Amino acid sequence: MRILGLDFGSKTVGVAVSDPLLITAQGVEIIRRDKPNKLRQTLARIEELCEQYEVSEIVLGYPKNMNNTEGDRCEKTNEFAEMLRRRTELPVTLIDERLTTVMADRAMNEADMHGMDRKAVVDKLAAVFILQTYLDSRSNNKNII
């Protein structure tokens, strides 16, 4: 069994999956949609990925503000998490994603990625960091949200 990591955005969802031993996270794809509230195809694709990778749990980035408050994006993420639970019948764990974008930007700077290259991978890389943070916290028994 594996764990799926998601970076939920207004028009994209970055997707990552763990290895079978639940040690490392790898980027899978970016699911794109034209309108923020059109989630049916996005949910269907996530369901397909869950079956393909034999996923037992989903980890979803939770976009708290830097001052630890919850804004509009948190509300939308909670709604999306509930949709995922109903659609996949899998547990969905929310994990603080505040620094994952910073980590993704750093990684892309170190890889000397610029322009369109960055846009093509940033959401997938953020999903990798979200999932890897969760995997590391499981092994360290840390509080994750």
Describe the structure.
It is a single chain. With 145 residues, the chain is of the alpha/beta class. It has a single domain (2-140), classed as Nucleotidyltransferase, domain 5 (2-Layer Sandwich), CATH 3.30.420. Helices cover 46% and strands 24% of the residues. The protein has 4 helices and 5 strands; from the N terminus they run βββαβαβαα. It has helices at 40-52, 72-88, 100-110, 116-140, and strands spanning 2-8, 12-18, 25-32, 55-62, 92-96. The longest helix has 25 residues, at 116-140. It is globular and about 40 Å long. The chain starts with a strand and ends in a 5-residue tail after the last helix.
Task: Kindly summarize this structure in a few lines.
The chain is an alpha/beta fold. The protein is built from four helices and five strands.
Order of helices and strands: EEEHEHEHH
Question: Remind me, CATH topology?
Answer: Nucleotidyltransferase, domain 5
Instruction: Give the CATH class.
Output: Alpha Beta
Classify the secondary structure makeup into a structural class: alpha/beta
